[in-house]
Structure to design on (174 residues):
């Protein structure tokens, strides 16, 4: 028998398959991480948060992505390459010259969800970094071309990784 939150998430999904996970969490009064973990397995694969640094290093080579951070109801969105980073003073420091910068507290990331869920009627895939509290620290969505189509190389790699229990060892090579 499914857990009550799992069934509530499934029910909301049946009503509106395109509803975003943050809105579902707010509607149910649970964390977004709980919503994501309750989604059907054909939509989500969970990896350990311990893989955050290695994954971010790989994503820095992927080109255009969309990084999203929600804070107090506001949503910040950056479209462009994820800069390479390195660990220092307890943070993973994004080292780009232009565009996105930041200092990520990766030791607070419990899970990385590889999420495949339609959004606003279009196919969508994201890496969702879920904090120990269950809140989403940030999300990185696959990039799109000028016609709003997913970038095929990114989509192929993402879907291949969704089949893995963890970031494949070959991907850790620089």
């Amino acid at each position: 028998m499914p857990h009550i939150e799992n069934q509530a998430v499934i029910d909301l999904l049946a009503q509106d398959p395109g509803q975003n996970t943050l809105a579902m969490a707010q509607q149910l009064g649970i964390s977004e991480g709980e919503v994501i973990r309750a989604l059907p397995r054909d939509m989500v694969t969970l990896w350990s948060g311990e893989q955050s640094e290695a994954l971010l290093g790989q994503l820095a080579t992927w080109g255009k992505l969309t990084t999203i951070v929600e804070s107090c109801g506001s949503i910040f969105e950056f479209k462009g390459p994820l800069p390479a980073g390195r660990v220092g003073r307890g943070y993973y420091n994004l080292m780009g010259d232009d565009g996105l910068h930041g200092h990520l507290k990766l030791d607070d990331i419990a899970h990385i969800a590889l999420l495949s869920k339609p959004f606003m009627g279009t196919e969508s895939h994201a890496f969702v970094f879920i904090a120990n509290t269950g809140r989403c620290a940030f999300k990185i969505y696959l990039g799109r071309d000028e016609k709003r189509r997913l970038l095929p190389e990114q989509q192929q790699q993402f879907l291949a990784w969704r089949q893995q229990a963890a970031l494949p060892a070959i991907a850790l090579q620089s």
In short: The chain is about 25% helix and 30% strand. The two ends are 45 Å apart (CA to CA).
